[in-house]
Specification:
Elements: E1 10-14, E2 21-30, E3 35-40, E4 46-50, E5 55-56, H1 59-70
Antiparallel strand pairs: 1-2, 1-5, 2-3, 3-4
Length: 82
C-alpha cells in the first residue's frame, strides 16, 4: 500500500551527500511532482527528496521524536553512517 506523505510527517530519508538514512521531517510536499522537501532532524539541513524514496519510521521512534520536537529538545549531534 502506498503511503500518503504530508507536511509534518516524520520519516527516514537518505541524505545525498553520504547515502545514509537519517530521521527527517517533511516540510513541503508536491504530490503532482512526487517530491517533497525534508529537514533532517539533529542537523537542520534541508533537501528535496522523491516521495517514493522515503521510509516510514517505527511508530515508537516517531512518537519519541515528535515529543522532543514539541519541546524543542532536538540537539545537533554527529552520528556515523552504519
Amino acid at each position: 500500500m502506498f503511503h500518503q506523505w504530508s507536511v509534518g510527517d516524520l520519516c527516514r530519508a537518505k541524505y545525498s551527500e553520504d547515502g545514509c538514512s537519517y530521521d527527517a521531517e517533511i516540510i513541503s510536499v508536491d504530490h503532482a511532482a512526487g517530491s517533497c522537501v525534508v529537514r533532517y532532524l539533529n542537523y537542520g539541513n534541508v533537501e528535496e527528496q522523491e516521495l517514493s524514496s522515503l521510509l516510514k519510521m517505527k511508530r515508537k521512534t516517531a512518537k519519541n521524536l515528535q515529543a522532543k520536537l514539541e519541546q524543542s529538545d532536538i540537539e545537533v549531534i554527529s552520528l556515523s553512517c552504519v
